[in-house]
């Protein structure tokens, strides 16, 4: 039985062995795209309707933040949001802007506010209050904005003295981060001259795709070299946006979130003879690393790109389970699977051999230290884990032990270990799982259906206007 009690921090989630998986599901709307749709629609010059919007706590924080800046946003029904863009002419917020648990809200919003003549103070919950903001303070300061972190080690609250006189910059990202890239590009949109962000490792590109959708003039150059023969390698990606632009209002339909699908993909991949089809899921190549990793681990996968929802590929993933085998996840692949490492660590625990994850020190500054949290929980389930500063070596274990686990208020840790519980002897209980609602409202119900062997009934609507566009 799965329990999901109450609405307080007392809520816990219990899972146990699942029946054979043979079903088709849809997953909630993409979190990254939902945030960006509200933010860029707010900057636009008119009415934008966002369909299949993620009604999770993180995206609600973005909506509340924009409302506190005077943007009119209505939600006529769940999953539909209508934003009256104000061409970026925000009003002074009456008080602090609470970004909740959402790093994406705080970092992207800091880019937007840096370039507006507004004074603001961005706050967050205890987890967000421990996340580093120097990575946005640095480049936005170079552009001429004044940002100060009030917390220790450049952590929130974040005070922003914005200016409509920012100068465009050329900025080479010191860490592969779509949030930092997006913050700088969003500031560049309202700055003087051109702003270029250079990345040497590719991170998710939803902001750039949404710029195209909102008719924002920008350009992307990829530089490849073949100095490491025989393969050519990516040297850098340069994304440039012209300053002084107002996005053209347009409607946005959000695809399903592959990071939410990842939990069920692993549940199916690690169960021999199972079969799962995930429909209407975003298949942006900067996010599909999970498919490559599970493929290397032996799962049989068919990915079908069926259409393109306003610049974002959409389709289905059909996966068949096997006895998984270990792999190595490192280097340029890491940003593509950064949110999937907790659940891929569970896949590693169920695989034959030792999986090595390296170059992933960013995991230490997510909603919690995800390397420490994953290692501690896997050990409680009987798995051998060696921890490195930038990753882990996880040796697969034929039988996981049920355990009582902490998720440290991190939604992806909670969900990853609920899936581990499907493969464990006895019961696995994850405590304090209210955080799951930040990205996956309805997760507990779908889990209960997997355990019960029924086809999960919950499905999200197919994005409207899911046509080539
Ligand atoms: C996100 C980017 C990633 C990811 C986060 C969402 C985004 O963070 O971990 O969940 O929407 O831009 P970083 O860009 O900091 O790696």
Structural account:
There is one protein chain. With 469 residues, this protein is α/β, with parallel strands linked by helices. It folds into two domains: 13-29 and 255-468, Alpha-beta prism (UDP-n-acetylglucosamine1-carboxyvinyl-transferase, Chain); 31-253, Alpha-beta prism (UDP-n-acetylglucosamine1-carboxyvinyl-transferase, Chain). The chain is 27% helix and 26% strand. The chain has helices at 31-43, 57-68, 103-114, 134-142, 178-188, 206-213, 258-269, 289-296, 341-349, 370-380, 411-421, 443-452; strands at residues 13-15, 22-26, 47-51, 72-77, 80-84, 97-98, 119-123, 146-149, 158-161, 170-172, 194-199, 218-225, 233-242, 252-253, 275-282, 300-309, 312-320, 328-329, 354-357, 384-388, 391-395, 400-401, 404-406, 424-425, 428-431. The strands form seven sheets. A four-stranded mixed sheet has the order 2-15-17-16, covered by helices on one side. Helix 1 (31-43) runs parallel beside helix 3 (103-114), helix 7 (258-269) runs parallel beside helix 11 and helix 9 runs parallel beside helix 11 (411-421). It is globular. The termini are far apart. Residues 1-9 and 457-469 have low confidence and may be disordered. The structure holds shikimate-3-phosphate. Residues 32, 104, 177-179, 182, 203-204, 338-339, 362 line the site of shikimate-3-phosphate.
